[in-house]
Amino acid sequence: MANKRASSNLINDPLWYKDAVIYQVHIKSFFDANNDGIGDFPGLISKLDYIADLGANTVWLLPFYPSPRRDDGYDIADYRGVHPDYGTLADVKRFISEAHQRGLRVITELVINHTSDQHPWFQKARHAKAGSTARDYYVWSDSDQKYAGTRIIFLDTETSNWTWDPVAGQYFWHRFYAHQPDLNFDNPQVIKEVLSVMRYWLDMGIDGLRLDAVPYLIERDGTNNENLPETHQILKQIRAEIDANYPDRMLLAEANQWPEDTRPYFGDSDGIKGDECHMAFHFPLMPRLYLALAQEDRLPITDILRRTPPIPAHCQWAIFLRNHDELTLEMVTDKEREALWNYYAPDRRARINLGIRRRLAPLMEGDRRRIELLNSVLLSMRGTPTLYYGDEIGMGDNIDLNDRDGVRTPMQWSIDLNGGFSRANPASLVLAPITDPLYGYQAVNVEAQALDPHSLLNWTRRLLAVRKQQKAFGRGSLNMLSPRNRRVLAYVREFTDALGNTQTIVCVANVSRSAQTVELDLSTWAGRVPVEMLSTHPFPPIGPLPYSLTLAPYGFYWFLLVSENAMPDHPPQADRLPQQELSVIS
Ligand code: GLC
Ligand code: CA
User: Which of 53, 168, 306, 567 is the most exposed place for a label (fewest CB within 10 A)?
Assistant: First the structure.
């Protein structure tokens, strides 16, 4: 293992995930190297420089395993293979090594709650004798009334968590699609298999594993079958294997739960390391970023952060604006969900299950100010930011496509055929690219934006470059300021390094459509000079009185607080963009 990673340019730090910027890609939709209409590993490899130049340092791959793809690959038929459309195992190994050479880490999916019904384990189980170890790889029942208190997640398609299997003569349990039977974690053989799959990918050099749908591993009568203590015991076993043999790897929990129910997914041992997952997505924060904009009020954000319990020192939240799924509205109240639906998805076709199947740019009505504002909050908030491919150029969606396909369309590289994604006949593409006049690849693509210094792509690159200079964003504390004007969100990020030097950053964001003034209590830092980080322009020093600021509609600032004698003596550089190569990357 160690020797495989020796040739890499990875920073040697077991807490690397704290400084990560994750870029989430779908192989099938990123770049098609062999022109068969489906994105593939060789295509992704050829675009690694694009991801590195953007400023991300970690790539998260959606499932690429053999699969009937009825849930876009989350229905796995073989945990150890590669879907032939995407390439070969040799391609995956080359991908990992090419990523590592560029200092990029790789996160893949460990989907252990369920398999495809085409997985050999399920085929064997349904034919095996009831009660046998082989049958018990999955969860069976003679009645579909068992575990009646369990919610259905895919509300638009499923009517029960049980499906009758005529071969087995029993019902099998599934929290998702009826073709995705849940594995039975009460069977020690299943845990063994899962650990072995995990070792297989970690031995290949994978740096992190997203644990898909992890709250649902265990079922118990009389419960809602989520977050059960027995599920946490399984996670502790998984983590123990990591700690024993793969100390620099990371587990990331997909637990779409309230903060108090997500907190246990970090586990605890000594209050420092945690003994379950190193990271977990902060699902409740995400919709509240959108709610704050809709209501022009910071309260939804400050409220959920206040309700978020502290986590062990080595653990980290993963935060995001959008991903490959619907913008889920499960972790909001019914009233908030109605408000969000009405505001962001008045067209019912944009709704699916309890969420909204739209990308970031259309949600913001293409408004650059709002897109930038949300990104500025994402990149300065506590947690590791996760970017969804295409959002850095403001890609659109297609709500007429099936399921969540509308937010998984091909990456838009140029104005060429199929948006530069593939040279295949357009009729044979894995998904049609976006072609509408506002968001189509003729209007929105990497090539054009790379040439334009003012594009969203180059703005994102600059913001990421600025973010990278300060460890406080990934590692620092966060303290909310509470100015009286609730249209302004303001917080302080602070980090003290090993030498005792403290970085202090003040972030201020106007979540409203009108210009705002705000008075911040920065008296703790009286005498310091706030330097606006995107321009390196110094603002007036902080005095004993409240610090007054004016913000444009949806405006934001990141200020680094420096002492006056540490001020650079060159003139302010308000009109100069931070050094950033604006080269065309193809
Ligand atoms: C996770 C994935 C989603 C998938 C589901 C079932 O929630 O993010 O895409 O459909 O698990 O596997
Ligand atoms: Ca291909």
Answer: 306
